[in-house]
Fold:
Amino acid sequence: MNLGAELLPPRCDVLVAGAGPAGSATAQLLARAGRDVVLVDSQVFPRDKVCGDGLIPDAHRALARLGVLDAVMAEARVSTTLGCIAPRGGRIDVPGRLAVLPRKRLDDIICRSAVAAGARMFAPLRFVAPLRHGGETGTVVGAILKQGDAVREIRAEWVVLATGAQPQATIAAGMCERRTPSGIALRGYVKNPRMASRITSLEVVWHKRLAPGYGWIFPCGGDVFNIGVGVAQSHRQGKDGRHAMKDMNLREVFAAFKDLYAPARELVEGGEWQADAGQELKGAPLRCSLEGARLAAPGLLVTGEAAGSTYAFTGEGIGKAMETGMHAAEAILGSDDDAVVRADYEARVMALKPRFDLYEEANRANAHPWLIDLLVWSARRSPRRVERMAGVLEETHIPTDAVTVRGVLRRLFDRR
Structure:
């Protein structure tokens, strides 16, 4: 599947840089429609990717549209509830279509589906800079790629950047509006057969010692669990307008998670780390809320986490990455006019913004965990409230007040 750089053609219809869920979704739809697609990635597949690995309903829908849901679910650990654990120990289990599959397998399945549709995959091959017609601000007509010291050029009618949270590609393309990420996460895999029957839901834990973040334990199957911590709003904006890293240490946050949540402590202390490349825990940045990069320029579209496709409150981003990638493909297929394609793509992505705004509003709870205590307490009083939360997870219910003080208090005294 990973073709060598020496076989790279001089031109193609569409060059997609980044073969994760967003890039592979883009490539598959375009190749399926008969476009000549070249897909490149800086790493040879299969490769590891730091993530919580959770697949929520939007990911299920996207995978089904790509025709790979059955293949994914054949390997994934299926769960029917999302366990929300409040600081004082209260818990609610929100029903939903949920599953967990490590990104090393998930991304490989989606990438292979793009290749099966006709896209050509080249790796390792890194996007360095766009090729432009008409100077530094001219239309993008291809890209400069690099493998080791070898430099390659390829011409394309469109270039799609699906290069993830690291900003180097969007900076090089002049599309980056914020170099620092929205958040950061740290995760590892632990095998512990004794916990397999005890932790069957996707569990998310809030506590003041984890603020402004949370901890999670997601069962992967095979007695293996993805355990980690995420910190939202990890960078504060100074008076000069620049964002700098807050004073925090994710490994200390992870240690606090083990200390305060007994299942996390028992999982790790009684289990065996599934270390990759000698590392038990790996960290990664997050880009959230469709912020941090421009979406389009002449000849160029930005999609997936490079465009901020991750939800702020939960750190879930796989489904929306695929959605934005498919929107990029549909916009390109919809017109031969560059301006029309760009306007169509931007409109499609921004139509998703209310969902991201909901999670951004809810993100306040990460900094004020007592809101979760109130929300869980109120939800346990009424099955109807749990149904509403399930609707948020399924994206059939989009409340306007999210997890605000006003919204929580309204729910406390709303008997419906």
The domain at 5-50+105-180+288-358 is CATH 3.50.50.60 (FAD/NAD(P)-binding domain). The first strand starts at residue 11 and ends at 17.
